[in-house]
Amino acid sequence: MNRNLVRGLFLVAISLAFGLQALRYPIGDFSRAGPGLFPAMVSGILLVIGAATVVRSFFVERVRLSINFRNIAIILGSLCGLALLSTYVNMIAGIVFMVFFSALASSSGYSWVRNVKVSLGLVAMALALQKLLGLNLPLY
């Protein structure tokens, strides 16, 4: 199976799933945006990227699709750990766990320095979302 084709079809499917749900909300216009405008725009951009990926897959060399169940399990475990730690400890601990645990799936090797940098960036982003946008994130 062609990995590029599957990737493009997956992007198209995700964009349609979110885009069709976004149309259930009022869209509004750019001067007075409704709650459905942003998800509709993002899913539209993702649809264009997915369609371009599908078309491109017919013109480039085929890449064999391989599924690595170990990496899938690591990523799912890191997301579950993020959810559990965010619920029972705090979100900063969950973010750090997610970054360090998901890095085990990397093919470029494990680098704790890179993991610290990524963790600091994600924690800074979460703090900015909490302080600047007023999102209710359990960071502490």
What brief labels describe this structure?
5 helices, single chain, 140 residues, 0% strand, mainly alpha
3D architecture notes:
By secondary structure, the protein is mostly helical. Helices cover 68% and strands 0% of the residues. It is flat. 10% of the residues are buried.
Spans of at least 5 consecutive residues whose pLDDT stays below 50 are none
Alpha-carbon distance between the two ends: 46 Å
Number of helices: 5
User: Which range best describes the helical content: under 10%, 10-25%, 25-40%, 40-55%, 55-70% or over 70%?
Assistant: 55-70%
> What share of the residues does DSSP label as strand, in percent?
under 5%
Radius of gyration: 19 Å
Apparent shape = flat
Could you tell me the number of beta strands? 0
H-E order:
HHHHH
Largest sheet: none
Structural class: mainly alpha
Mean model confidence by pLDDT: 93
